[in-house]
Structures are given as C-alpha cells and as structure tokens.
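Pasting as-is:
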Amino acid sequence: MPIIDLKTTEKKEPVSGYKARFVHSDNITLAFWEIKAGSKLPAHSHVHEQIAQITEGEFELTIEDSTFVLKPGKTGKNCHHSFKC
C-alpha cells in the first residue's frame, strides 16, 4: 500500500520508555519515536545508516565522551552513541 496512516500503525516499545511506529521498505526503515522524559538508551551503534530528526522537546545525545543537547532543527552524525530524553 503506497499510503500509510501512522495513526493506525502499531506502536512498539523495543526499549522501556521508547515507543515507535515503524514503516519498512526493501531498503530503509523509517521510525517515528515517542520518548518518555528521562528515558535512557544505552550506548550502541548501527550497521546501517540512520537519520534522526527532533520535532519537539530536547534530546541529549552522547557521542563517545561528548554530550550535546539536540532540539528541533539539529541532528547528529552516525557513530557509537547513547541517548537520554
């Protein structure tokens, strides 16, 4: 189906406090995350490319030993990272 209604797409919670709706194609997955304030995601990396866009609120991104606060309009590069919302 070429049109996807996110309101009817099942929410999944792969990590406590991190709920997402996923849209999959043959070559990419698009994730729409809703993150509970204070939720942490341990340091990790991906074998695939990833793009994140903050649409509201603040997101604390740690890349190696440096921590940045991301707000709408900012993003980070792909590397070993962790998050706190």
